[in-house]
Structure formats: structure tokens, C-alpha cells
# Entry
Amino acid sequence: MKLLCTVLFLICIAYAGKAQNMKWNKNCVIAHRGAFKKNNLPENSIASLKEAIRLKCYGSEFDVHMTKDSVIVVNHNDDFMGIPIASATYAELLSKRHSNGEHIPTLESYLKEGMKQKGTKLILEIKVAATPEATLALTDAVVKMVKSMKAGAWIEYISFSYDALLRVLQLDPAAKTAFLAGLKQDVPLEKLKHDHIAQADYYYTVYKEGDWFKQAREQGITINAWTVNEESDMKWLIENKADFITTNEPELLIDLLEKR
# Structure
């Protein structure tokens, strides 16, 4: 028993040391699909991820789908250059390339790149698939890969599927999750808190009606606003102390924050 306690103590010390080495960037900037726009990089590419990391964004958002042969790939649309992802094999997707020569990234390759650093979080959007069952199958596969690669410290999960987020929390109760919603699709903060979903991740105009920021602080829920590209909207959100702002213009947002 004494030996077991000693081993457990050493494991806890090692874990604590690793956690202390994670010095995530302390700003509100989340690069939407990576930092792609200014330098004309492909969205959701390894190159746009690297640029978000170089800019020292808090997070780099990306989207995942699953191919017919169960390979998880990083892409926004449900097709890659005209090839439907869900009905194609990964090998078939390799027939196309991004404008910079990259193949469509796999989740595995994306995580490997992101885990080379400890400043920028990887904001993983689980895309809604053709059926609820397919969405949950994707969710299961994603969480399994994150766990197998020991990437949990880097990952925050977001989705328009509430059920997907609940499944994430079933599989990994310590995971940080955020519910995505557009106009008229938001969920009350009280429900998010009840279901242990840590963040409201709503289209930015939703927050202009009601007292979301005050209520969020009272509920212990963080707020992210998407997708915010105009300077005036960024300033309004900064003034209202939004926790995070997702943008296609991370350089502009960083500049505004530095000026303040």
C-alpha cells in the first residue's frame, strides 16, 4: 500500500509539472479556421494553424469531418474541392490539394502540429453530420483520438450539436466545451451551466439583446462571439469584456488589444 501511494504521488507531481508548463496565450483572440486571410493561406490548413500560433492567438479554430473509411479530416465544408467527404475515402481526397500544395489535413496530423507548442489552444469544432447517429460516431472517434494522443490539454470542443457536446462530456468529464449557435438558436446560460457546458459561443449580434455579459459572469459561463471581422464590433465586444472573439481578422483584433 505504501508503495502504491508513493507511485500515485509521483504521478500527480509529474502531471502537475506538465500542467504548469502549459502557458496559454492570455488574450481573447481565436483565429477562425486558422489565421488564413491576411496571407492568403488555405482555411483549415496546417499553414493557417502555424500562422495563428506565430501570432500568439489564444486559439485556432478548426472543423472536422469523417470519411467513408473512418479517417477524421480537417475541413470546413462537407466537401473538399467538390468531393463529398462522408462518401469518399481518404485516398480519394488526396487527389486534390490546397492552393499551397497541402493535402487535406487529418486530425492526427493537425494535432501533432498543434502539440509542438504550448501557447495556442486548438478549438475543435465537431461538425454536424448527415444524421444524429453519424454526428455521435464522429464525436466518439474524435474524443478517442484526442485521448490516445494525450492532446486533451490543447483541445476545446465546440459544436452546433448539443448532443455531441453532451457525448464529449460523457466520454471526458474534464473536457472544456462550448455550444455554437446562430440567430434565435441560443440556449439559456442556466441550461449550459446545468449541463456542464462551459461556454456560450454565439453569433455576435445575439449579445446585443439582453444582458448576456452580466448573466454569464453570474453563472460562471464564458462568452465567445463569432465571426467578428469589423473593427467597430470588435471594440464593442472588448468594451463589454467578452471572454473570446472568433475572427477572420486576428491581426486587426490583436492590434486593437495592443492599443488598449
Observations:
- The two ends are 56 Å apart (CA to CA).
